[in-house]
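Hello forum,

I keep getting stuck at the same step: I have a sequence, I want structure tokens, and every attempt I make locally crashes halfway through. Rather than fight my setup again tonight, could one of you with a working pipeline run this one for me? It's a single chain of 170 residues.
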Amino acid sequence: MHIHTLDNWRHSHEFSVKNEQGERRTQYVLILTALTMVVEIIAGSVYGSMALLADGWHMGTHVAAFMIALFAYRYARKHADNPAYAFGTGKVNVLGGFASAIALAVVALVMLLESLQRVAEPQVIHFNEAIIVATIGLLVNLLSEFDKLSHITVEVNSCKEPPCIEQSRE
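Reply #2:
Ran it on my machine without issues. Output:
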């Protein structure tokens, strides 16, 4: 009988990237997006604006995606050293992206049904009130995108010389 263990061949399978700053930024954008979503859905319902309703529910998919991303960050971090995950927890984010895509498809279907109903039974739209809320929604979207772009720019500009780019491709 052999008395050997596999301890000599065991090693870490932690492939997930720890991104605490990204997680914190995601939380801030989540709160801002959730507040804007609620305002747009309520305003869209009150003012009869399908555009506000569609954008509000679309922002709802972003809120769901942010919540899934936060869950994925925490789950991957919590289970990073769990031997049950032979290849690590890196695929958690990919599965989160898939779940977000499914949620977006469901919301698109609901918006299609609502739009068809409004074609059959048109509603009065209070344009002046709706455009104010839409402008606020646009500013929130731009602010969120600017935050993402400023973060990416910092990462790209951290490599200042072309040899750095070549080394990263190897």
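The radius of gyration is 22 Å. If your local run keeps crashing, start a new thread with the error log.
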